[in-house]
């Protein structure tokens, strides 16, 4: 009997009940998913970075653009520590200093080639991350903040006092990259466009490193380790109870932050070819933290926006330069009070993708549900369906 | 040797005064007030501003110093209360990270606000203490140094009296133990916390004026390092413990004094921060602090 019924209904088109009211059309194309849109946005950003030297290759533009990119790298590194793992690091600039000084000392005093110095820089940063992190990461969050601040000052004062770091005047004449006979200093001619200055090359090198750094940090945050970081940030005890080794998670965040900062320091040292202890004051640690907080802790687009704002604002607004620290300080308080998740929060959903329940039309006689619809909702096929079948 | 101890004692009494405010605020609402060092700086600048407004410079009178000291204490105390009201109170239930970041923002605002008003260059403090001294037990002591140490000691005694003997002090200790419980017992928590901020900031302001008179020059960043040092002092003594803060301050002053004599003055700060890290990793509760079991 049931089988007969199945057979009889085989060709009856099953119709979903008509919607009670019009639903909004889902967005199409790159706008249809958060991920796709963010990727497209990232691609546009990378293209913009790549095209900039072809529009304005003046020494000044390239110089501030390179500095801005280095800021982005630093902020992405700090974002791993503060944004993902929730460890407030107030001496972050120390790792930047370690990277800059190690590459400076190895290339000038010891005369190593740049690639070897780069490896030494990374090794030194990992070591510094472990040395600073190992004893302090068991501490409470606020103690950690002040200990890292102390470490930052120790590194700066040590660089200021030692002979090998050049004392207060720092290290000069850090060489640039060279491959055999050809170095970045020599310039290059591509498709008839002259790239005379090493500045442009540094811009490209920095751009590649930073793009890799940004994508790398973003990918790490999505993986197993990244989820462990966020769990530790949200509730350390609960994370531990779930089987996460919180100490390993924290120290790996610290080491990755250190490596990111070290790479940025290496780029800075070769870009400016001179470094001095004054570039590694607490002020800069605070500025990087501000960029991360203003942009949105744990949010890649937010942190990039914050980094660009903090590094470019004094260049673009000359009059503002003198007031900037005061304004940044006030902004920091205001953001924390009124929008603690920052300009572009990590949990942000694109406005057109936000799922809102469509407001049902007011219930009137005209919009009342017709009897036939009610029947189809009940599951009994309506007479029209049978008629359609026969026709 | 004795000279080193004496110098350490003077610097240590400044540290202790600032550390007291740190320690009190931390003990009561578990907030690391980064802006505390900058309150010290504000104290010095309030003194500078009032004295300059009356056209006083190169004065050596000690009664005048006391008047300025009181004025600065009241002003910085009120500023401290204002900061608590605007920046910290709305965030009292927020995660720690948010409050810490706010405190850094406040610190920046104070530093660079003062820089915008008074300019980036160091200013000469209008009251200079005379440097004629006498020898006691093989150390050189000046009358003004004695005055500074006595003022610091008196302030600490007054504070100890307030915390241990008065009704308000009992309320403070109750909140430090259990804020919710204290509130249930009828303690006006907001008012007591505001009072703690007033007292702590007033002490830091007093230290600022004294440091201005002692060193003779003030600048807008003078609070940063001393804030760190005072925190170190508070940690050495055991944060949240008043006598610990006093002991830690004096001890840190001596350690620095000996450290710079042995390793050279340029390593003084490294020495102090090294001690901070050592203490935090080996004995985070400090010398006099109670063991804290904590659920973050």
UniProtKB/TrEMBL annotation, chain A:
<dbReference type="InterPro" id="IPR043428">
    <property type="entry name" value="LivM-like"/>
</dbReference>
<keyword id="KW-0472">Membrane</keyword>
<dbReference type="Pfam" id="PF02653">
    <property type="entry name" value="BPD_transp_2"/>
</dbReference>
<dbReference type="InterPro" id="IPR001851">
    <property type="entry name" value="ABC_transp_permease"/>
</dbReference>
<feature type="transmembrane region" description="Helical">
    <location>
        <begin position="62"/>
        <end position="84"/>
    </location>
</feature>
<feature type="transmembrane region" description="Helical">
    <location>
        <begin position="200"/>
        <end position="221"/>
    </location>
</feature>
<feature type="transmembrane region" description="Helical">
    <location>
        <begin position="251"/>
        <end position="270"/>
    </location>
</feature>
<keyword id="KW-1003">Cell membrane</keyword>
<dbReference type="GO" id="GO:0015658">
    <property type="term" value="F:branched-chain amino acid transmembrane transporter activity"/>
</dbReference>
<feature type="transmembrane region" description="Helical">
    <location>
        <begin position="115"/>
        <end position="134"/>
    </location>
</feature>
<feature type="transmembrane region" description="Helical">
    <location>
        <begin position="282"/>
        <end position="313"/>
    </location>
</feature>
<feature type="transmembrane region" description="Helical">
    <location>
        <begin position="90"/>
        <end position="110"/>
    </location>
</feature>
<feature type="transmembrane region" description="Helical">
    <location>
        <begin position="36"/>
        <end position="55"/>
    </location>
</feature>
<keyword id="KW-1133">Transmembrane helix</keyword>
<feature type="transmembrane region" description="Helical">
    <location>
        <begin position="325"/>
        <end position="344"/>
    </location>
</feature>
<dbReference type="GO" id="GO:0005886">
    <property type="term" value="C:plasma membrane"/>
</dbReference>
<keyword id="KW-0812">Transmembrane</keyword>
<protein>
    <submittedName>
        <fullName>Branched-chain amino acid ABC transporter permease</fullName>
    </submittedName>
</protein>
From TrEMBL, chain B:
<keyword id="KW-0472">Membrane</keyword>
<comment type="similarity">
    <text>Belongs to the binding-protein-dependent transport system permease family. LivHM subfamily.</text>
</comment>
<dbReference type="InterPro" id="IPR037294">
    <property type="entry name" value="ABC_BtuC-like"/>
</dbReference>
<feature type="transmembrane region" description="Helical">
    <location>
        <begin position="62"/>
        <end position="83"/>
    </location>
</feature>
<feature type="transmembrane region" description="Helical">
    <location>
        <begin position="95"/>
        <end position="114"/>
    </location>
</feature>
<keyword id="KW-0997">Cell inner membrane</keyword>
<dbReference type="GO" id="GO:1903806">
    <property type="term" value="P:L-isoleucine import across plasma membrane"/>
</dbReference>
<dbReference type="InterPro" id="IPR001851">
    <property type="entry name" value="ABC_transp_permease"/>
</dbReference>
<feature type="transmembrane region" description="Helical">
    <location>
        <begin position="39"/>
        <end position="56"/>
    </location>
</feature>
<keyword id="KW-1133">Transmembrane helix</keyword>
<dbReference type="GO" id="GO:0005886">
    <property type="term" value="C:plasma membrane"/>
</dbReference>
<dbReference type="GO" id="GO:0015808">
    <property type="term" value="P:L-alanine transport"/>
</dbReference>
<dbReference type="InterPro" id="IPR052157">
    <property type="entry name" value="BCAA_transport_permease"/>
</dbReference>
<keyword id="KW-1003">Cell membrane</keyword>
<dbReference type="Pfam" id="PF02653">
    <property type="entry name" value="BPD_transp_2"/>
</dbReference>
<feature type="transmembrane region" description="Helical">
    <location>
        <begin position="143"/>
        <end position="163"/>
    </location>
</feature>
<keyword id="KW-0029">Amino-acid transport</keyword>
<feature type="transmembrane region" description="Helical">
    <location>
        <begin position="6"/>
        <end position="27"/>
    </location>
</feature>
<dbReference type="GO" id="GO:0005304">
    <property type="term" value="F:L-valine transmembrane transporter activity"/>
</dbReference>
<dbReference type="GO" id="GO:0042941">
    <property type="term" value="P:D-alanine transmembrane transport"/>
</dbReference>
<dbReference type="GO" id="GO:0015192">
    <property type="term" value="F:L-phenylalanine transmembrane transporter activity"/>
</dbReference>
<feature type="transmembrane region" description="Helical">
    <location>
        <begin position="192"/>
        <end position="214"/>
    </location>
</feature>
């Amino acid at each position: 009997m049931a089988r007969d019924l199945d057979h009889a209904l085989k060709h009856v088109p099953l119709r979903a009940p008509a919607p009670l009211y019009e639903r909004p059309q889902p967005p199409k194309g790159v706008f249809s998913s958060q991920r796709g849109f963010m990727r497209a946005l990232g691609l546009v950003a990378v293209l913009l970075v790549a095209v900039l030297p072809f529009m304005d290759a003046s020494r000044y533009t390239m110089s501030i653009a390179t500095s801005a990119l280095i800021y982005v790298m630093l902020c992405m590194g700090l974002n791993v520590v503060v944004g993902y793992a929730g460890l407030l690091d107030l001496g972050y600039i120390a790792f930047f200093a370690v990277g800059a000084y190690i590459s400076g000392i190895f290339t000038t005093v010891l005369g190593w080639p740049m690639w070897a110095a780069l490896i030494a820089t990374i090794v030194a940063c990992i070591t510094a991350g472990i040395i600073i992190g190992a004893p302090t990461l068991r501490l409470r969050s606020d103690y950690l903040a002040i200990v890292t601040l102390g470490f930052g000052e120790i590194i700066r004062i040590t660089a200021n006092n030692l002979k090998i770091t050049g004392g207060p005047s720092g290290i000069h004449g850090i060489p640039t990259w060279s491959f055999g006979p050809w170095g970045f200093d020599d310039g290059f001619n591509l498709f008839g466009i002259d790239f005379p200055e090493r500045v442009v090359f540094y811009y490209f090198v920095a751009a590649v490193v930073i793009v890799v750094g940004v994508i790398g940090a973003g990918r790490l945050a999505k993986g197993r380790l990244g989820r462990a970081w966020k769990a530790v940030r949200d509730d350390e005890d609960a994370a531990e109870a779930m089987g996460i080794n919180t100490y390993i998670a924290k120290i790996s965040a610290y080491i990755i932050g250190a490596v990111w900062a070290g790479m940025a320091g290496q780029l800075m040292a070769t870009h400016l070819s001179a470094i001095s202890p004054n570039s590694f004051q607490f002020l800069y640690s605070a500025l990087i933290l501000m960029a991360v907080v203003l942009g949105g802790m744990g949010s890649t687009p937010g942190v990039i926006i914050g980094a660009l704002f903090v590094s470019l604002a004094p260049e673009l607004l000359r009059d503002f330069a003198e007031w900037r620290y005061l304004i940044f300080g006030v902004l920091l308080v205001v953001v924390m009070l009124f929008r603690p998740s920052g300009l572009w929060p990590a949990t942000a959903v694109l406005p057109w993708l936000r799922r809102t329940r469509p407001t049902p039309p007011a219930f009137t006689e005209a919009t009342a549900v017709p009897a036939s619809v009610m029947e189809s909702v009940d599951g009994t096929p309506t007479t029209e369906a049978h008629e359609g079948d026969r026709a | 040797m004795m000279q080193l101890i004496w110098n350490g004692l003077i610097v240590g009494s400044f540290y202790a005064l600032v550390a007291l405010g740190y320690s009190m605020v931390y003990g009561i609402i578990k907030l690391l007030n980064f802006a505390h060092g900058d309150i010290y700086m504000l104290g010095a600048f309030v003194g500078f501003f009032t004295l300059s407004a009356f056209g006083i410079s190169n004065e050596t009178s000690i009664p005048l110093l006391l008047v300025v000291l009181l004025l600065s204490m009241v002003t910085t105390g009120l500023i401290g209360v204002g900061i608590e009201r605007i920046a910290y109170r709305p965030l009292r239930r927020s995660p720690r990270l948010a409050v810490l970041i706010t405190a850094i923002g406040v610190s920046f605002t104070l530093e660079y606000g003062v820089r915008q008003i008074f300019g980036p260059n160091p200013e000469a403090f209008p009251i200079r203490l005379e440097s004629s001294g006498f020898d006691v037990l093989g150390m050189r002591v000046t009358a003004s140094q004695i005055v500074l140490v006595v003022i610091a000691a008196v302030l600490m005694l007054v504070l100890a009296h307030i915390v241990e003997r008065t009704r308000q002090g009992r309320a403070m200790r109750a909140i430090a133990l259990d804020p919710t419980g204290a509130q249930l017992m009828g303690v006006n928590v907001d008012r007591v916390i505001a009072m703690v901020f007033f007292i702590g900031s007033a002490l830091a302001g007093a230290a600022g004026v004294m440091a201005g008179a002692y060193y003779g020059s003030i600048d807008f960043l003078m609070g940063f390092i001393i804030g760190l040092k005072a925190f170190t002092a508070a940690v050495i003594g055991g944060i949240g413990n008043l006598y610990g803060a006093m002991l830690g301050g004096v001890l840190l002053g001596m350690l620095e004094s000996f450290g710079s004599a042995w390793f050279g003055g340029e390593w003084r700060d490294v020495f102090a921060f090294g001690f901070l890290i050592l203490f935090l990793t080996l004995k985070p509760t400090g010398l006099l602090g109670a063991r804290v079991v904590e659920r973050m």
